[in-house]
Write a structure and sequence with these properties.
mainly beta, six-stranded antiparallel β-barrel
């Protein structure tokens, strides 16, 4: 069956080579990516999206590239032109200048149906070794992946709902595919967590549900607008809840700050207004606590971000269920577009 999957998906996966002034276009972030700038161009992977010759890859693979060369598994070579990028999801679309006559787009599965423990198969070009397949399982779901910085604190964006896998992923796999046992795309391989910037059994893939929302917009508009609340906050934990006079088992998202002029500000969502001492630390408390979005219970900040990414779009009105001074309220909010960092 694995050989069948390789023959099915292999023709859809391409090798991407970029040049930019003699240096790799964009080095991936240490700890989250794949290394320092290398001479003579960069290497990455991509896959066929449609019969029109659109290739999907990671934004960091092609960002800053002066020339993009796409190589198919049968040796066919074509140049590519960037038609759209989205740094916030680390996705990009390249259009082939002269697509081959026969293109085999990937089949896409809903990542919302992916389960921990199921088979996960990665295809890409690690270290430029074209047509490499590795096999593992889905190790975890719902991870967050910072992009646009060297670590969580300096990153410009965080991608929610990331799939973690132990299928071997190495430099050059970026932009390749993670498929299920039926050969359907469940994620785009993006990064690894490794002290030596090589496979350590912890790889990350951007889920297909995000890919299916972002890629069509990149093809048609060249960009994708992410829905935005305009808050910073944290998962409500028992010490925070008790400091606010709430039951220790109360779950939700504590709103810390509200960006002025944001959708949250216009909807009168309120941030923390006082501080409390918890275990010797001064922490912000007293803000609204979001406990549900559109009737869906919210137990963590990551869960709320994942819901917004999966199910909402700019301009959509959502209904927040909040606790304010211990009393439950319903708060309608019109989502805006996330501003550039």
């Amino acid at each position: 069956r694995l050989a069948e999957i390789y023959n099915q998906v292999g023709p859809s996966v391409v090798n991407i080579q970029t040049t930019a002034g003699g240096l790799q276009a964009v080095p991936e972030s240490p700890g989250f990516g794949f290394g320092e700038p290398q001479p003579r161009g960069g290497l990455g992977s991509g896959f066929v999206w449609d019969q029109a010759g659109h290739i999907v890859t990671n934004n960091h693979v092609i960002e800053g590239a002066g020339e993009i060369v796409v190589i198919f598994n049968d040796g066919y070579v074509a140049t590519g032109e960037v038609v759209g990028t989205d740094p916030a999801s680390d996705l990009a679309v390249v259009r082939l200048g002269e697509p081959p006559e026969q293109l085999r787009p990937v089949q896409v599965a809903p990542s919302s149906e992916v389960q921990v423990g199921q088979l996960a198969i990665a295809l890409g070009n690690p270290f430029g070794l074209q047509g490499t397949m590795t096999v593992g399982i889905v190790s975890a779901l719902g991870r967050s992946l910072p992009v646009g910085g060297d670590d969580t604190f300096s990153s410009a964006y965080t991608i929610p709902d990331i799939i973690q896998t132990d299928a071997a992923i190495n430099p050059g796999n970026s932009g390749g595919v993670l498929v299920d046992e039926q050969g359907r795309l469940i994620g785009v391989t993006a990064a690894i967590r490794s002290p030596v910037e090589a496979n350590a059994g912890i790889g990350f893939a951007i889920p297909s549900d995000i890919v299916r929302r972002v890629v069509p917009a990149l093809i048609s508009e060249g960009r994708y607008e992410h829905p935005w609340l305009g808050i910073s906050g944290t998962t409500l934990v028992p010490p925070l809840a008790e400091a606010m006079g709430l039951p220790g088992q109360q779950a939700g998202v504590l709103v810390a700050t509200v960006v002025s002029g944001s959708p949250a500000d216009e909807a009168d969502l309120r941030g923390s207004n006082r501080e409390a001492n918890i275990d010797g630390l001064q922490v912000s408390v007293g803000g609204d606590v979001i406990v549900a979005v559109d009737g869906q219970e919210v137990r963590s900040f990551e869960q709320m971000v994942s819901y917004l990414a999966r199910n909402t779009e700019v301009g959509q009105t959502i209904n927040l269920t909040i606790l304010r001074d211990g009393q439950q309220q319903e708060l309608p909010l019109v989502l805006g577009a996330r501003p550039a960092p």
